[in-house]
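Item description
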Amino acid sequence: MKHTLLILMLMGGVAHADNRPATAENLAAIERLQRTLQQREFAGTGHPYALAKAGAWLDFALDEYYEQDRTGIVQDATDEAALILAQLDAQPGFDASATPHPYASERVRDDLWQQVATMKQHPQVACASEKLAQLEVQLVWTGHEKWEAGWSQAEPYARIAENLAVEAQQQLDACARQSAPMTRSVVEQRSLGTDTLFAFDRADVGSLTPDGRRRLDALADELKTWQSLQRIQLTGHTDRLGSASYNQQLSQQRAEAIKQHFVSRGLRADVIEASGRGETQPIVECHVQRDARALIECLQVNRRVELMIQGMRK
């Protein structure tokens, strides 16, 4: 059509393409197509994206009709809606994915067109199909306003397009979250006996026993298989032998040493907390024992580092 008009214009046979006033016949056609569209929407027949796009073209045409547009865009927008509805009659699953530019419109906002193309590749695109259809026609409408009177007139229409893009992306994100596998944070507790981890009365990383180092390495490797680690709380404990201040320091240092070792094995330092409780939280009391050796053995269970692990397993 555009090429035919240009040829005729050069021959002097028709009025300029920007002198095609909308008529009562245009309004009648718009209203007829709107009734057809409403019937389809009520019956639930037709691709939602295609129905939304036909509706957007009709809104475009009707608004420009009442603006007394003389560029021919009213007829062109009405024709696009009519074409979509006709193709839906022949093929109910027709998706109307193409968005042509009428003569009296120019392509604007390539960034938003690129967003449209990206969102159409989203696995949950059906969730935002109506917004995407409206967005594409709104961009054509914006291009018409710029073609007709420059960017100052087109800018408010572009803002509407930007809002539609935001709303479409929000709908896609919401559907993606709903379809994601349900994962819950879990909390697990472990207890490590420090007698097997550290040399006697020692608390630094260098004093880890070979067996203790292997046990910590295996635990660190296990934790690295988790989907996410939110928190690892290391709490050191001692027995009641010795002074309270010494035991507090020893329990703190052993928890810190295990944290240091975990970090060296690739765990994140910012999720690991280390603290000491000294002798204040015993598991057993062992008040009466035959001799010192028996007392030390009885209190062994109190000499420990407890782990509280919070995160999500794979």
Remarks:
- The radius of gyration is 36 Å.
- Residues 267 and 312 are 15 Å apart (CA to CA).
- The longest helix spans residues 151-179.
- The chain has three domains: 1-104, 111-180, 186-312.
